[in-house]
Every structure is written in structure tokens, then in C-alpha cells.
Amino acid sequence: MAEEIKSLHDLINEDPEILDNINVLxxxxxxxxxxTIFADIHPADIAEIINHLSPxxxxxxxxxxxxxxxxxxxLELDENIREKILEETDALKIADIVDELDTDDATDIVSxxxxxxxxxxxxxxxxxxxxxxxxxxxYSEDTAGGxxxxxxxxxxxxxxxxxxxxxxxxxxxxxxxxxxxxxxKQNDELLGYTPLKSLLIHPLNTKINTILDEDxxxxxxxxxxxxxxxxxxxYDMVAIPVxxxxxxxxxxxxxxxxVDVIGEEAEEDIQKFAGLSEEEEISDSSLTISxxxxxxxxxxxxxxxxxxxxxxxxxxxxxxxxxxxxxIPIVMAMGGSSGTQAAIVMVRRLTEHDIWLKDSYKKLxxxxxxxxxxxxxxSAVLLLATHFIFKAEIEFSIVLSVSLxxxxxxxxVLGSTIPLxxxxxxxxxxxxxxxxxxxxxxIFALSxxxxxxxxxxxx
Length: 459
Hints:
The protein is built from 22 helices and five strands. The strands form two sheets. Strands 1-2-3 form a three-stranded mixed sheet, with helices on one face. A two-stranded antiparallel ribbon has the order 4-5. By secondary structure, the chain is mostly helical. Helix 17 (286-313) packs parallel to helix 22 (435-457), helix 19 (328-351) runs parallel beside helix 21 and helix 20 (360-388) runs antiparallel to helix 21 (394-424). The chain has three domains: 2-147, MgtE N-terminal fold, CATH 1.25.60; 154-254, Roll (CBS-domain), CATH 3.10.580; 278-457, SLC41 divalent cation transporters, integral membrane domain (Tetracycline Repressor, domain 2, Orthogonal Bundle), CATH 1.10.357. The longest helix is centred in the C-terminal third of the chain and has 31 residues, at 394-424.
């Protein structure tokens, strides 16, 4: 089966005729033919096909799908495509789709709807689900409350194994994945849990409170989703309960939700590395995207203007030692690359909590040594290249190589320090790896290089 899915994925991405054929069928309104094509295709792959259609054709295809299939693929659609489809879809059909979803997924869909449509949808789904979705909508989408599912299997502490099994059977209609049975006090305070396996290996009359594990990790609704992902990753958890400040069980977060969070956070960090915004992903307007990118481009432009000023201030030195100008791109590129590498590593460690701020001195010392070792090796290569390939004087080659060592060490330490500095003051360290670090390193690398050249040859 895995090979079949892979082949289909390759066909979707590599054979444009598939999409052409589907587009032709859409133009001919050949609904039955389209459904026949989709009959043996996984919903996630149908979503991938829809993502490659025009908005109008995507809406047409989506409307052909039965409610169950539509509910299975709606969250797999690109955000901008999903938004356009939902805009054109009747509120009653959206309500039918939402009714098929887990409460956390239903909340994600309802939160994207205009207020008036959202109210209609909530009025037309099951009352119990409606109340649960309304409760979840109170939480920010990037918190534990925003990604938790309020459906879980819970029993009171005086229940027996037989009673717990009965609850599992009752809840299995609404819950796809049951990993744990949560044991609660009479006031719904979380007491502990027992794995599903325990129900199979103990007598039916066994009291649940005699086999529960009270050593349980939980999070509050306000916990950031990235922290939730880090906790579950660190402790190899497949589900984590969400409780309020009094310990009352509110819901659970499962591993499938965390996988989505990890993907979202990684994508967000990549965008920040480039100085971009997540708004760009959902915008079709070139003007809007331009406005998003321009601020960081202005930062880069301002930085390079400063670099130009540095160059102009050393004009006399460059004119007298003309060969020095040939190696300006090298020292700037090596400094920028070293700084960016160090910044990315530090951001990743801070994000995954692999490093504490109080231990930052050790990490900076390590990065200093890394920069020194890399600088020594690269400068040795540069010394040989400049002297034997460019026929430069040995004195110039040595000074150039020493400059490179200093620049790479400085850039590495700077790249490591900026994320720590931003984290210390509550800012997102991921922005340090964008044009900010690169531009700063360009300025400092150029200044260091030209100052050293001037000092040794034009005193």
C-alpha cells in the first residue's frame, strides 16, 4: 500500500496530464467520471489534486465529494484554497462537514469562517459539539487550548475495569484514537491514567484506581503549542492531557496534532530565517506579498549602504593596495556564512530547549572554538590560493588570512550571541537568522578587513 501511495504522489507532482485531464472533465461537468477517478484515491491525495486546481475548479470538485470524504481532506487543503472554497460553500454543508470532525479540527474550520457564517454553522451542528467548539474558540490557535480535543475517555476513580471498557465502547464512535483512560475525581480533577492495554490484562472487577499511574504530565490551555510539542517529544508521549489551574480535565492533545504543530513551527521558522511572514502563504496579491518582504529588504539595503560608506572611508587604502579589493567578496561571504550557521544552530537549540540561558557562556565558548578552527582551516587554504594562484606577496597573503580568522571567529560569536540576546528580552530568536545577522556581519567583516589592511600596509 505504501508503494501505491508513493506512486500516486509522484504522478500528481510529475505528470501534469493528470491535472489536465481532470480540468477537462471539470469543464465538461463530467461529475461521475471525476468521482470514479477519486474512488480509490486517499483523501490526502485528493486534497493535493484540489490544491493544484484553479479556485473555481477546486470548488466544483469539492462540492462533488460526499460529506465523509470532504471532512477527511478539508484540513489537508492549502489555507488559501480552503478559504476560497468555504466562502462559496453553503453554511449547511459546512455544518455537515464540521459535524464529522473531531472538536479540535472543527474549531480550526469554524475559526476561519466569517462571524455570521460561523454562527450559522454552530447552530446547525449537534448541540454538544457546538458547545465544545464554542469553548475551544476562546483559546488562541497557537496554544494548547487551541489544538486540544475535548473528547476523551474518562472514568471516575471508583470505576471498575468493566466500567472503563464500557466507556471505551461508548466513546469509540466519536474518538478515532484511544490511547489512555483518564481517571478523575468526582469533581473531574485529573487523578491519573491507565493505558488501554491495562484493560485487557486485569480482571473485570478490578478497581481502576488500583492500576492507575499518578505520575502524569499535563499542560494548561495557555501553554504555547511549541512547548507542548517539545514536552511530548522529550517524554515520548502519544497524548497529553490539558487541565485548568485547578487540575480539572479539559481535553487532550494527541500525537497527530503535535506532528502538525511541528510542521507549522518549522515552516514559520524558515519564513523568519528569510525575514518573511506567514501571511505570505495565504495571500495571492503580489502587492501584499511585496509589502511583507520590503521591511527586511530595507534592512538589508540600509546595511549595504553602511557597507558602501565603510568602503568609501577606506578608498585611499584600496587604491594603494588594489589587490585587497579582489578579496572583499570572500571575507564578506565567509563572515556572513559563519554567522548564519551559528545563529541557526543556536535558534534550533533554544527552540528545542537544548540550551538554557544560564548555560549560554559554555555554548558561546564552544562556538568561539568552532569559529577559530574553521577560520584556521579556511585561512590556510586562502593563504595558499592567494600566494600561489594570485601571485600575491607573502606578507599580504598572511595579513589576509589573519583577517579571515578574526572575521570568522567574530561572526560566529555574533551569530550565536544575537539569538541569546533576543531570547533574554522576550523576542523571537528566529528573526536573528534572517537579513539582520547577514547584514551586520557584512558591515563588521568589511570594517575589520579594511582596518587590518590599512594598519599593516599604510601606517
